[in-house]
Write a structure and sequence with these properties.
By secondary structure, the chain is α/β, with parallel strands linked by helices. An eight-stranded mixed β-sheet has the order 3-2-4-1-5-6-7-8, sandwiched between helices. It has 21 helices and eight strands. The chain is flat and about 75 Å long.
């Protein structure tokens, strides 16, 4: 994930100063040396790093350590505030007109995900802002881009206007705008042509289009994996077109993140959206304060909640809560929860957003988690409708048939049955108002793991054997 290495280094640097009696120039210099190296290794612009470190030092040594805060807490606050200042003091939003059509031009180099980003923003505006959106396919240089946009538009139920690859981009833009007016659209997104590098022909076409459509926003897509090139590309496009915002793509990769930290400070162009996956719903509004939280390992509960509201079927969740209140939990309920969790995406990513669990995310293997869920789903789907709703009926012959149907061992069927039984016990205890004791919770926690049930059973056998020895 982006910023993972930077986050680890910064947290290690700050941890070294925690527990010290007070902030001194010596221990601050030691810590700041680590911070400086962390930022430089993350590919942050040298001048930005220099100014950042100087600002942190002045603020840390220029104020008294409050009685309620230890030095580590104060440094964390100062570093957090400076990171947020680098990323932007406030959220950057699309500039919607109060009346009439809002026009957005999407620009960028080839390979940065511009066409996909156009569809993602169209979905965002339609689903979250309630806008009537039109996508205009102005990338006639790459015919596949028109087909790609049409496919994406169909997936998100947003109309795509195109005159085909034989009509020039300027004519397409003009007629697309007229079409939007006749259909009473609120927002028009123009997906323009990219190039392998910035050239005069590209800029001339974009300038002409800008004069015709009078965009309210010009958004530049940049690839997080390109590091400092983000700054170079943003500066050149900004000088030619006066761009209003950035869409940073491929944030789910192993980008070091230095370009993202540098671009606002150098170009004064804010990041508006970040794309962290290939699906059309893998788009987030960019919040500088939340990103600063993530970098410092503080999680991002707000974004996690927003994603849950956006992706999870609330009717399914209400039904699940109702059944839990009734003390009921079956394989059908487990299958519903699997489907809900899969909609949320990467487990590792979710853990990064929960305060205190970021360090544990590195121990989560998303592929293993997904394989485990698929195996559990296969077991449940090999059951009859009656068996799913009545786990207590599963005896030896049924278990054997289910195991064969799912292509697993009977032991794995037993493990899943054990997990359902543990959840049933918990539901019944919650319904009766008696909270489970710590021993019971620990047993259930072990049972939830891939090999938890067998481990838990093994630990009980060991305890019994020990007690027998004592009696003898």
């Amino acid at each position: 994930m982006a910023f993972e290495s930077l986050s680890e280094r910064l947290n290690k640097a700050i941890k070294n100063i925690s527990g010290q009696g007070k902030l001194t120039e010596k221990n601050m210099n030691d810590m700041l040396k680590e911070v400086r190296m962390s930022l430089l290794e993350a590919d942050v612009n040298y001048n930005v790093v220099k100014e950042f470190v100087e600002n942190v030092k002045q603020k840390a040594l220029g104020q008294e350590v409050l009685d309620a805060l230890n030095p580590g807490q104060m440094v964390v606050k100062i570093v957090h505030d400076e990171l947020q200042s680098l990323l932007g003091e406030s959220d950057a939003k699309l500039h919607f007109k109060k009346h009439g059509i809002t026009n957005v031009m999407m620009v960028g180099l080839q390979g940065t995900g511009k066409t996909t980003a156009s569809a993602k923003i169209a979905r965002f505006a339609k689903e979250k802002l309630g806008k009537r959106v039109l996508l205009v396919a102005c990338d006639v240089v790459r015919p596949a881009a028109i087909e790609q946009l049409q496919t994406l538009g169909k997936n998100i139920d947003v109309e795509v206007f195109s005159l085909g690859a034989d009509v020039d981009a300027i004519t397409t833009a003009k007629q697309g705008l007229e079409y939007a007016k006749s259909r009473q659209k609120d927002l028009v997104i123009f997906d323009t042509a990219g190039r392998l590098h910035i050239d005069a022909d590209l800029m001339d076409e974009l300038k002409t289009m800008k004069d015709i459509v009078a965009p309210d926003d010009i958004l530049l897509t940049v690839d997080a994996m390109t590091g400092q090139d983000i700054v170079t590309v943003a500066r050149e496009f900004n000088e030619q077109l006066a761009i209003t915002g950035l869409v940073v793509t491929k944030m789910d990769g192993d980008a070091r993140g230095g370009g993202l930290l540098s671009v606002r400070s150098i170009t004064d162009v804010p990041v508006m959206f970040v794309s962290n996956g290939e699906k059309v719903d893998d788009l987030e509004e960019f919040h500088p304060d939340r990103m600063a939280d993530r970098i410092l390992g503080m999680g991002d509960i707000m974004t996690l909640v927003e994603q849950a509201q956006d992706k999870i079927d609330m009717d399914v969740q209400k039904r699940a809560v109702q059944r839990m209140n009734e003390g009921v939990f079956t394989f059908n309920d487990m299958l519903d929860q699997f489907k809900q969790v899969k909609k949320m995406g990467s487990m590792q990513k979710m853990m990064n957003m929960i305060p205190g669990l970021g360090k544990l995310s590195g121990k989560i293997d998303d592929e293993q988690v997904n394989d485990g869920v698929k195996k559990s789903e296969a077991i449940i789907q090999s059951m009859t409708p009656y068996e799913r709703e009545h786990p207590q009926c599963l005896k030896a012959s049924r278990k054997s048939r289910i195991a064969k149907g799912a292509g697993v061992k009977v032991m794995e069927v037993n493990r899943l049955i054990s997990q359902v039984e543990q959840m049933q016990t918990l539901m019944k205890m919650m319904k009766s108002g008696s909270m489970p004791n710590m021993k019971m919770l620990q047993g259930m926690q072990k049972g939830a793991g891939a090999y938890g049930a067998s481990k838990h059973a093994g630990s009980k056998k060991k305890k019994k054997s020990k007690s027998k020895k004592k009696k003898k």
